[in-house]
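Before surveying the methods themselves, let us examine one representative protein, written as a sequence plus integers encoding its fold.
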Amino acid sequence: MSDSVEFWNEAYIEYVPYKIPESDFAKRNEYFLNVIGDVRGKSILDVGCGNGELSVHFALNGAKVTSIDYSETAVQNTLTNAAFHGVEVSAMQLNAMEIYKLDQTFDLAVGIFILHHLEPFGEMVESLHKVIRQDGRGVFYENNSRNKILMFFRNTVVGRFGVPKYGDNTEYPFQYRELKMAESKFPNMRLTYPQFRFFSLLAPYIFKDNVTSDRITRAMDRFIYKYLPFLNRYSYIQILDMRK
């Protein structure tokens, strides 16, 4: 795993748990949650749990949740968040590459923007295959590096000219070769694009924080998604539904 523990400990250190209305959380994550479906009674592994908001959501909806993260601060935040919301979550510090060490299988493995951090990715796919039980699934909300225009701006503009950069220096969006690795172990994998994200991501590089340009570019993204769906594979976001 390429990212440093220190980087993520610092990223999570100022988190304070707060009540998140279920309706707000569901709306903010509706595409992802719709793909996952009903979790009541299911065992779930939250890979890269961060502050535990996803773990808590599943626990509130009747799932038995195990959460792991590389960052000890994230694990503590997840436990604090679960206690704050009155639910039980089993959280532990563990390198995602080593989830096979849990020595158990799950109905569902989930994660948001985690897979692209994990290298060598082929080994991560093997680990996922071991911990997902037969007829189980791995559902991951990920970024996408297929759009060469976005990648150009990411590589040449982000972190310069006043454009902020998030993530550490080794992070790179999920690649097509990694998608094929996942398909090799999960041949029934389904890939969906919950929305088209391109122009609205490109705009800040060009127009900074202009509200009008943001509205226009979001409208352009919605138009592409609705009327030119063959372009959706170039969206910056995608959902991998790995079915075993």
Observations:
- The first helix runs from residue 5 to 12.
- The first strand starts at residue 43 and ends at 47.
- The radius of gyration is 18 Å.
- The chain is about 40% helix and 20% strand.
